[in-house]
């Protein structure tokens, strides 16, 4: 799965707009009212499986904002924290590269006093959902994983339970943007996203932190 910009640049025509995925209601629900439901997770999980079956090969995923948290659980599988429903085994083998862009990886600093900040399936770094997707010690999002973040992200924030909020656990590389608002991170880092998908981005131990 690719964001539209990367899809255009790679000239992916095998599935047309079907290569684009979304979750939930596409932004109708206000940010601080949205939670990570099992239904949303299943929607993305089914999409990943469908694309993999259609192409007959591994897929690449560029996930953005809350889509990072949803995609990670969709890949991870196991039980949903809100319903207890069993999703199934991990889909790690289905994914080659996973790129988290301005992602809700360890949580968010905003919305904590509203519905989205609940301690079951919310963005609070102490919620069952966030702890669940960050519990594994090994990389499960794909063979390769990267993250891109802004040090001035006004939505995600920076500090989540001792971690950088958008930091993707076990990622092999990252890109830090400065003075870039949340909404611009996905739009203004297309070249970096492409390099990561094509494995042209330096690994973490080769980069300045």
Automatic annotation (TrEMBL):
It comes from the Eukaryota. This is Triacylglycerol lipase.
